[in-house]
Amino acid sequence: NTGITATSSPFNFTATFFIGSGDGSSLFFSGNMDDFRIYNRVLSQDEITILYSANNLSSTANNTLSVINTLATNSNNMLAWYKFDGDSNNMLIDSSVNGYNLTNNGATFDLVNYRTGNGSINFNNQYALLPSAVNIYNIWYGNGITLTTWIKFSAALQSNNGRVFHYSDTAGGSGWVNYVGICRDTSTNKILFEMY
User: Fold this and answer.
1) SS3 68
2) Which of 19, 75, 78, 83 has the fewest CB atoms within 10 Å, counting from its CB?
3) What's the pLDDT at 149?
């Protein structure tokens, strides 16, 4: 039947976005995170490759540096950028123009283990929260979404499926949870991307 039209609309609920935990009380990530970015569009493969190789600036061409700087601007749909640099007071600051600073729940600043800048955030049964004004479900509607970060799992065995990030909502009622997360399965030692 050619007369059928399918449409979609944004979700009408707000998700809680946890960094370092599944829900703030379990599924904790154990390790370090650096340079966490959220774009409210899908980055191209070339842009992702440039971000990935940006840390080897001695071999990065000037045009690549230009793209890196461009990707760090609001005009390129950067919603939030957490460099986790400075010190324990500044590590939660959003370096985009939007001011979506994180709320810390025990995570610590690490100036020894980092990938970019001068520090990273360390999680060990702690987490951080994005502000409630950031509605991840509605961000990806229409334009898609890209999340990028560097992670280093701790050498110690952590709880199975400790979440690097997790956003979910119980919009379907009690016991119903929608979520997206990334974690390490300690039974296989593989990285899992989960969407439910």
Assistant:
1) helix
2) 75
3) 87
Q: How many helices (H) and strands (E) does the chain have?
A: 3, 11
CA distance 92 to 80: 11
> Cα 24 to the chain's mean position, in Å?
16
What does the pLDDT look like over 128-137, one tens digit per residue?
Answer: 999 988 877 6
7, 20, 67, 142, 154 from 113: Cα distances, Å = 47, 17, 26, 37, 11
Q: Quick one: pLDDT at residue 45? A: 87
Q: pLDDT digit string (tens) for 63-93?
A: 545 555 566 655 568 889 999 998 888 899 9
In angstroms, rounded to a whole number, what is the distance separating the alpha carbons of residues 17 and 30?
A: 17
Q: What is the pTM of this model?
A: 0.79
Distance CA 57, CA 73 (A): 19
Q: How many CB atoms lie within 10 A of CB 153?
A: 18
Which pLDDT belongs to residue 14? Answer: 58
Task: Compute the half-sphere exposure of residue 184: CA atoms within 13 Å on the CB side of its CA.
Answer: 16
Cα angle 17, 19, 22 (rounded to 5 degrees) comes to 75
Measured CA to CA, the distance from residue 105 to residue 124 in angstroms comes to: 11
134 to 12, 27, 99, 110, 118: CA distances (angstroms): 13, 22, 11, 26, 27
